[in-house]
Amino acid sequence: MSIKTANLGFPRIGSHRELKFALESYWAGKSDATALLDTAKKLRAENWKLQQQKGIAVIPSNDFSLYDHVLDLAVMVGAIPAAYGWKGGPVDLDTYFAMARGSTGQSHDGSTGGSHHGDCGHAHNGYGVPALEMTKWFDTNYHYMVPELRRDQPFTLTANTPLEAFLEAKALGIHTRPVILGPVTFLKLAKSTEEGFDTVELLDRLLPVYARIFAELSAAGADWVQVDEPCLVLDLSDRERAALSQTYRALGEVVPDLKIMLAGYFGDMGDNLPAALELPVAGLHVDLVRGPPQIEILLEKAPDSLVLSLGVIDGRNIWRADLNAILNRIAPLVSSLGEHRLQIAPSCSLLHVPIDLELEAGLDGELKTWLAFATQKLDELSVLGSGASDRSGVIGALEASLRAVVARASSSRVHDARVAARVAGIDGRMKHRGRAFLARKALQDDRLRLPLFPTTTIGSFPQTSEVRKSRAAYAKGAISEADYEAFLRRETEAAIRWQEEIGLDVLVHGEFERNDMVQYFGEQLSGFAFTQHAWVQSYGSRYVRPPIIFGDVSRPKPMTVEWWRYAQSLTEKPVKGMLTGPVTILNWSFVRDDLSRADVSRQIALAIRDEVADLEEAGAAMIQIDEAALREGLPLRKADWKTYLDWAVESFHLCATGVADETQIHTHMCYSEFNQIIDAIAAMDADVISIETSRSKMELLEAFRSYKYPNEIGPGVYDIHSPRVPEVDEMTELMQLARGRLSDGQLWVNPDCGLKTRKWEEVRPALVNMVAAARALRTMGQ
Ligand SMILES: CN1c2c(nc(N)[nH]c2=O)NC[C@@H]1CNc1ccc(C(=O)N[C@@H](CCC(=O)N[C@@H](CCC(=O)N[C@@H](CCC(=O)O)C(=O)O)C(=O)O)C(=O)O)cc1
Ligand SMILES: N[C@@H](CCS)C(=O)O
Ligand SMILES: [Zn+2]
Are 300 and 445 contained in the same domain? Predict the structure, then answer.
């Protein structure tokens, strides 16, 4: 006897990024739909077979997506905005990708890859349709397409994709449990296109579509369906709770033969758990990695007939599990509920971890024994499934797990007494600059002598395929370090010359040497490991390789100073030092789980503080510390915000307060809904903050206006997520709107974010226009 193992979802991208290459080739018109769909089918089959081979009892289907699973659901239920020209019936690939990436009106567009958003023609051009908005999926670095719903939104089943997936697996002889995103989470994540209505109100119209999907699944032989409602870990309104209750009462009644495994994940269900336990579903999945105390409530309150799926293997991190500790933790449930009522599962879908540790030939041997990627997590599930009823059959695996846990806890690689002492020595003086902002501003203005409405950019210039190829060639040993660096110097010099030529006031070196704004720093800091193949989907065909923070963090040597020094040597204009901040490095890495995130952040901050000091020492008058992920790293529950913001702001201070008052500290945030965190932004006290505002027509500045925020701000005037080149007038108009909210002396002129995902053909005219807009502003009254 053993407890059933269940998986909630497997990464879609392929262990060698097969999906990315198939998609980008299709978009570029280099291959056809058949080739793309064949690759997708092959990946699905490989994933199912792998899980079968690993002995997973409950294997998911419909966890695959060509681009994004939220988009898939919107398309499946016919929630397709009129602009995409869908006339009913099955939805073709071009419509699907138009929603994902925008469209130029041609069948596919030839651009190989996006930015944060769909990247093709935009409606502002007078042709084409913009992509749906994109935003991060809960607190992950995965981004989903935001469905757009109107008050009179009809829903209709365009294709039963869970059924298709179920049948595809069945044809391979694999019985699966299809996955579908739940209707309440779907509606909650959607955006209403009209004022004054809550998308959850559309539930009555959506439920019949689910009922049909479920009925067809049941008729085809499915016995269970996994319905994901990650909203169960959020603060829910009464209406949302009522919607959950209505949904599961209704679906249970219409298709009684299909058992629902309702899955909540990404945290503790907290006050939603008792209500979830009362829903008339056959099973409930709980995330016991992020919410271990839920076990007590399950023991006390789980109804007799309910099957519990215990999310005990971390689906959000890459550490090898402490299998013995997990078995001990769930033992009371095993003895009280019995094996037949339990399933052993990852905390959430494995979408958020890389696929296979075995591919990491370059990773240090000892560190490797501490890690588990998706494939290894399947093995861990199997051991737990057997071990939960009888440990004797898995003694070897349990001993190996224990050895890894003990070795990691006591390893000298993990602990560095100097780092711990430095964190312990953080004192109040490191938490603020010398003088208050206005006094610093006077000193900085005197030093920098910038014009009104100074122009700058956010840091990166296009990462052309030439840049990427050169880095890949260097990594493979095909070109020498000297040749690679000479290439980067040429790129940097050309960027500096061009910025001078077009008249930007504050220059950047262009970040050509960086593969990614986080990975680049991870590769240079002690306590970090980096991988070769451990890609994780960020959105669509864009993936990241998050660094692994395994030990105490320190900086062996300066990381960016030489590139800054070189760039500054080429010009009289100021060049900004360019760094990624600790909270962003933390949020976009796999972080050790044996130290608080606050302390890891402090350690990174102290390393960045040293880099800031070295840049200042080298002569940098301005240093930018990007905190792109500070806002998006907010905890899911409001009650946890203050603690997070306190240490996040403290970390920024630790980076920024070692410099003289004459040195101007910049920060940049590209996810900019600031209303709820404006106190924290003000407390950061950066001399200049650049933010994303162009799409919101400067409305995001309202938070700064009403707060009477005194420091300087660069509200983005150029939407870098679109290939479109903004006109001079548009940018002056946007700045005029900004002038209505802030004083002239506070304002900078810059794009929304870095330009790494854009092409030079777009960037050149856009920045020429931006400089012209700033010049025009200097002569214009408000
Ligand atoms: C700003 N964003 C970021 C997030 N997270 C990060 N860690 N970084 C970010 O910038 N989160 C939120 C947003 C949006 N998210 C993303 C995520 C990913 C990209 C992106 O452009 N990804 C690239 C990969 C970038 C990278 O690491 N490149 C490496 C390796 C490149 C490579 O594959 N080389 C090839 C050969 C190259 C060639 O021949 O052309 C190879 O090795 O085979 C590098 O540059 O060295 C992606 O392509 O997915 C953007 C925004
Ligand atoms: N300096 C970085 C910030 C991106 S959020 C860049 O320009 O790409
Ligand atoms: Zn940005």
Answer: no
Q: How confident is the model at residue 103 (pLDDT cuts 50, 70, 90)?
A: confident
Helix (H) / strand (E) element for 483: namely helix 481-502
Per-residue pLDDT, averaged over 330-355, amounts to 97
ipTM of the complex: 0.95
Note if 116 is an active site residue: no
| Dihedral of the alpha carbons of 432, 438, 440, 445, in degrees to the nearest 10 | 150
pLDDT of residue 674: 86
> Are 344 and 458 contained in the same domain?
no
Residue 675, annotated as binding a ligand: no
Q: Ligand 2 pocket test: pick from 458, 514, 544 the residue with the most ligand atoms within 8 Å of its Cβ.
A: 458
In the predicted model, what is the mean pLDDT of residues 357-367? 96
* Residue 460 marked as a ligand binder: yes
- Residue 123: pLDDT band with limits 50, 70, 90: very low
181 φ/ψ sector (left φ>0, alpha ψ -120 to 50, else beta)? beta
- φ and ψ of 136, to 5 deg: -75, 150
CATH (domain of 249): 3.20.20.210
Does some domain include residue 103? no
Is residue 649 assigned to a domain?
yes
- Structural domain count of the chain: 2
Question: Among residues 108, 122, 653, 721, which one is catalytic?
Answer: 721
- Residue with the smallest CA separation from ligand 1 atom 5 is 588
* 137 occurs within a structural domain: no
CA distance 23 to 780: 47
The pLDDT value given to residue 510:
98
Percentage of the chain exceeding pLDDT 70: 97
Residue 773 in domain:
yes
Residue nearest to atom 5 of ligand 2 (CA): 628
17 carries a ligand binding annotation: yes
Contacts of 112 (CB under 8 A, 6+ apart): 24, 27, 28
Each residue's pLDDT tens digit, 495-525: 999 999 999 999 999 999 999 999 999 999 9
- 384-417 pLDDT, tens digit per residue, is 999 998 999 999 999 999 999 999 999 999 999 9
Q: Is 753 in the pocket of ligand 2 (CB under 6 A)?
A: yes
Pairing status of strand 542-544 against strand 536-539: antiparallel
Q: What is the pLDDT of residue 133?
A: 87
Distance set, CA 257 to CA 215, 225, 227, 260, 444 (Å) = 9, 11, 15, 9, 71
Q: Could you write out the DSSP letters of every residue in 309-367?
A: EEEEE-SS--BPP-HHHHHHHHHHHHHHH-GGGEEEEESS-GGGS-S-GGG-TTS-HHH
Residue 611 marked as a ligand binder: no
| C-alpha 692 to ligand 3 mean position (Å) | 8
What's the whole-number average pLDDT of the chain? 94
626 CA → ligand 2 middle, Å:
7
For ligand 2, the distance from its centroid to the CA atom of residue 585, given in whole angstroms, is 13
Mean pLDDT of 738-742: 97
The Å distance, Cα 352 to ligand 1 centre, comes to 16
Closest by alpha carbon to 507, among 515, 496, 517, 518?
496
- Say if ligand 2 is within 6 A of residue 459 CB: yes
CA distances, 104 to each of 18, 129, 723 (Å): 26, 7, 11
